[in-house]
Amino acid sequence: MSTTDFTDDLAADHSATLAELDTPALCLDLDRFERNLQTVVNLCRERGVDWRPHAKCHKSQDVGSRLVAAGALGLTCAKLGEAEVMADAGIRDLLIANMIVGPKKVARLVELRRVADPIVCVDSLDQAGPISAAMHAAGLRCRVIIEVDIGLHRVGVAPEKTVEFAATLSALPCIQFAGIMGYEGHLLTIADPDEKRAKIGEALKLLTDTADAIRAAGLSCDIVSCGGTGSIAFCTAQPGITEVQAGGAIFMDDFYRLTCQVDFLEQALTVHATVVSRPAPDRAVIDAGRKTINGEIRMPSVQSPAGLTVKSLSAEHGALEVPEGMELNVGDRVVLVPGYGDLTTVLHNRFVVHRGEQIVGSWPLQARGRLH
Ligand SMILES: Cc1ncc(COP(=O)(O)O)c(C=O)c1O
User: Fold this and answer.
1) What is the pLDDT of residues 285-344, one digit of tens each?
2) Cα 245 to averaged position of ligand 1 atoms, centre (Å)
3) Which residue ranges form the domains of the chain, and what is each CATH number?
4) Where are the alpha helices (DSSP H) in the chain?
5) For residue 256, which atom of ligand 1 is closest to its CA?
């Protein structure tokens, strides 16, 4: 049996500059990333809300630790497995914005509670009951928040039923009711900015009114959490919101920039590819197909050389349209911006981190594949 370790190819790649880097590669511009981070930290500070950025896109301890060091309250995670990875990096304040169901996961949550202070999202006693029982058996308590359905119609309790559910949760012995969350994900792509502001305002008011109703019933409701990158300008300005979950803001992509019209953050994430074939004057083929850069929510765009368009992605090939007269040869480098970063980062083991042309690091996505 072979003893060669193929999992760490990039760590063994001693390329010093992007030009030398073998492709395809997921690249992170550290200067832009740091500026994005500071922009969001400042925005949240000015508006008096906490920032709990979602880790579902970066899935990296290096990124997560930098976000917390820069001022994030903690992290939001999509999965228990992500939260375990972030806790392993010493991050304690972790919101798992998802339901934890089944004895194996509940047992892992108990272990996570020993080393961190997670908050688990619930919308039913069927999730909260087993968590309370397992925490009780372990002599622990765990924070829980209720997801309220503010129009996304994914999971969540109806606003008018939330006060009663909050009272039920508060009566469980080993649950600490910590607040509520909602996600306005169905409103991110409204083209007219005034309509977008108004609709997001209405949806988030459902959430903040629900928090007020919980408090009026004599319960505390410390956390009122919402917010994505596509709505960051609006959710941070909404009175009554205590924290926002926007995560993709640190990287940006064309979905946020063009579809959601978020224009004050920089594109920090790219995929570097190489032209491997020039089968026709108007067509070039690169070594990055949909197993390298996902085109589902939005097709990638070409950052450089300017003028190229991604026409199609098959599994391992990307077909580009080449304008007439443009010189583009086999071996040339093409830099792409993901259409939607979330579905692209998960295809890679590492971020190649660079300042300008200089490669300065290689950050693994430790939570990649931790879907459970
Ligand atoms: C629960 C939740 N919060 C926040 C977000 C926003 O994340 P991002 O800012 O990375 O788009 C999402 C996106 O799917 C989400 O599901």
Assistant:
1) 999 999 999 999 999 999 999 999 999 999 999 999 999 999 999 999 999 999 999 999
2) 6
3) 18-27+265-364 (2.40.37.20), 30-250 (3.20.20.10)
4) 30-47, 61-70, 80-88, 103-115, 125-138, 162-170, 193-216, 232-235, 254, 342-345
5) 11
